[in-house]
Amino acid sequence: MSPIENLRNSNKRVWAWIAVAAAGMGVGYLLAVAPASEKEPDHSAHAHSGEGYPASSASGAGGAGSDRFQYLHPEEHHTAGQAALPPEAVFPIEPPPRPDKPGVREYRLVVREDIPHEVSPGVQIAAWTFNGKVPGPVLRAVVGDTIRVTLVNEGKLPHTIHFHGVHPSDMDGVFELVPPGKEYTYEFKARPFGVFPYHCHSMPSSQHIHNGLYGMMIVDPPTPRPPRRELALIMSAFDTDRDGEADFYAWNGRAFQYATNPVPLKVGEKVRMYVLNMFEEMMAPHIHAAMFDLYPSGTSTRPSELTDVVDLAIAERAIMEFEYEYPGTFMFQCHFSEHMELGLMGWFNVTGEPKPEPTAELRRER
Amino acid sequence: MSGEKRGWVALSVVVPLAALAALVWVVWKYGTGVELAAPAPIEKLDFLRVEFLPGELRAHVVNSGPEPVTIAAVQIGWTNRASWDFTVEPDPTLPRLGRATVTVPYPWLPGEPYQIALVSSTGLVFLHDVEVAQETPRAASALGPFALIGVYVGVIPVYLGLLWLPLLRRLRPEWYDFLLSLTVGLLVFLGVDALTEGIETAGRIPGPYQGTALLAMGFLITVLLLQGVGSGARRMGAGRGEAAAARLLAYMIAFGIGIHNLGEGLAIGGAYALGELGLGKLLVLGFMVHNVTEGVAIVAPVTRTGVSVAHLAGMGLLAGVPTILGTWISALVYSDVWSVLFLGIGAGAVFQVVYAILKHMGGRQQVAAFSVRNISGFVLGLLMMYATGLAVIA
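Structure tokens for the assembled complex are given below, as produced in the milestone run.
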């Protein structure tokens, strides 16, 4: 007699239970495995569009052709449900002005850990911050000024600040770890003039830096550079899932923020852009439809080259001076496609009448 | 039973249940008292199905982790990843075991490799790689082609195998047990194959579906049910002679192979749905050659007694048509879970038939079960399956 027959003869109810169990399994899996939805997703409801990405415009949705995948003109963002960020969410692109008289430049940089920081719309990481933001504030002094920076460690780990530039050993931020709850004051003469990074140098440095503890320091030459509209931009990246590969790249700590919130410029407006690469990859800042005078490291008042793209290795920086001849929307990006496609992309929104004559940069004798 | 005793029994039923309910309530309300919170978010998304539609990618995902997951960004990789616009239906936040469809307008090209990266609100990245993109047939229009694949892989080979019946019938009676042993070899190979494929697929499906348990349940329940049904049928057929018994055995083999083929169809379609399998000519041809042996297995019991063409046709349908059903199911729904279940059922059916054949052979007591001839039949069956399996380049 088979086991089943045994069961049947001894207890018919076992059969009923097997049937119930089988039916239950069937129904359960029908419920669990039935397709979530075979209907067309409703593009209007719950639209969760990325910002500044190649997108289908509302009018063009469903249409074929490559225009469907082109970058949306920022003015069309609203029609596509890609609203601009609230202004306070955008990292200020303009550095503080050059101090107009010599003196002591005092800064207080408070380090905190695990501050929620949005690297891309809806994607929040636990960043380590100077004064609550990534990157830290732009520090500025004139060559010869005293820079006095107090590090206030409100985190749970020891931190430091390491400045690039010339200073004594105990101002170098390598040996003097500042324990949690303590303060340390760095003081040194600002020199030479140029653009410098500053960053935490606690071990492991990669963690302390790429969690967000970095910023830019501008030291102005004794004779002021001619006044211009000034922009300060740090190029960096975020490995949000810790797999050794960056997941988002950003101008000033947040992917695509100047794409959803373009930077307004005017035709003929003279622009000075301070750019610093704080990531472990080569970066190639590039502006569209204009040429810039390049001041590598910002340590000279004479441009080295007229170009529209430059390679910056890690911690390398430059000043770029340019102006636009034509109105319109122009991209500024990292020319490494991956960096651009993952966030290192923004728009200059240039207004005014076209002025198709060589700019100061183009007129310069070389 | 006295009233008092009955009361105690009732109490013994109610008290544990009430205590469990109270415990659940307390833990739900006040926690466990043990710090179980993870230091980092535990998020898990699994891809169920990826569709390549004209100018559009669609990923069907399930949250198989313990916490809700919010899909905040989508990146599509072609050599490197790039951020893309997207929509999520019904909601970007998926509760545990919640499902969603992510739609990405994207100018994908056939033949290119792509990676789909879903970034959660906490920055975790869930990846799915597609080695070779090709347009996903829409469910309705896929039924035709998938049916054709089912016919190629299931129906045609089984019938081709059945056509050997006249040849097999010419064998001398003492070779009958050899044929049955060969069938056992074929079936054991199929059963092991189904189990390993089931275990492999079980590893691919999201954790909460408990793939291995599903496989084991499918296997055990099928063995027990068929054992019950088989003995019932044998009792009904008792006294109708050897021909009826042999036919019944042939039908059982056909049924077992049919369920196995249903699982095979689901597996083919499931891999196809995830974009992991290009259904090339070679693969279809390989399955065809491999499955011809299934026809031989079915007719082995009836070589001595003979069988009508109608019965043969019925057995072929029973064994072959489920392949079509399998591919259809996989064209319409996420099928890996079903695939595991049916591979388990298929393996159970096949092994139960092996048991039935051995019993059939032993019952006739003509030769020792482990004669040289029988063992070589069994080994030949295994070898045939192995050799034809080489043609399946999956």
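The longest helix of chain B spans residues 242-273. The mean pLDDT of chain B is 82. Further analysis is deferred to the final report.
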